[in-house]
């Protein structure tokens, strides 16, 4: 039997703001009935402030409590403040949730994020472009049993510091049925922490260490890759984040090689050394 806080029990027994708003300014959804939990949230927004919020949910007591407290948390806040709310904030406001029920707080966060995305789509053209790019990533489904996307898993790791597949299952449900996606989930965890490690290392590199590292990556990673196709690359100079390179061999004769090379070298150096690196072909 799971241990629930008094607040979870209170919000489950007396849920606040249940229902729908007929002329809502934003509506967001998360989960699906096929997966056992679903949530729809309605927002009324006036002059950038959430003046009303209601929800309809199908799910367990924790899903009801998470949705209920979420509506209380957002009413009266500005859209910018609401955008900063994470699933951890929802769980904290409830006095915590059992690990196996953390996915209910994630569902609240996802529905809220979906509602805000829909709201932004009508208010800012740049946001639409950014959201389209984000949506493409979101659409990549990792766990087909529960329809959980890479983006949801990535956000759950980022917001809650998750480190194991089991934790991901508790927070998102991904991996909780047939288990076929567990390898992919582990890959996402590994990629996330590798990226974090690289970012930490990059922020502490001295200029001399950075030059050494760029040299090393070109010699040991990039050059061998290009040599496989009969080409090569020579490092000419490094000036801050500008890396000057020269093509050799077949690469220099390839049509569009400078574009391909620039993209390949730049991506590799940005991923491994510094995300601000700019590669220039000389
Ligand atoms: S594909 Fe994720 S549990 Fe089945």
Question: Unreliable stretches, pLDDT < 50, 5 or more residues?
Answer: 125-129
- Write the H/E string, N to C: HEEEHHHHHEEHHHHEEHE
Number of domains: 2
How do the strands of the widest beta sheet line up side by side? 1-2-3
- Mean pLDDT across every amino acid position: 85
Record field, number of beta strands:
8
Q: How many strands, which pairing sense, and closed or not: the largest β-sheet?
A: 3 strands, antiparallel
The top-level CATH class of the largest domain is: Alpha Beta
Structural class given helices, strands, pairing?
Answer: alpha+beta
Name the CATH architecture of the largest domain: Alpha-Beta Complex
Cα Rg: 24 Å
Count of helical stretches: 11
Structure description:
With 282 residues, this protein is an alpha+beta fold. It folds into two domains: 188 residues, Sufe protein. Chain: A (Alpha-Beta Complex); 75 residues, Fe-S cluster assembly (FSCA) (GMP Synthetase, Chain A, domain 3, 2-Layer Sandwich), CATH 3.30.300.130. It has eleven helices and eight strands. Helix 5 crosses helix 8. The termini are far apart. Bound molecules: FE2/S2 (inorganic) cluster.
Keywords:
2 domains, 11 helices, alpha+beta, 282 residues, Sufe protein. Chain: A, GMP Synthetase, Chain A, domain 3, binds FE2/S2 (inorganic) cluster
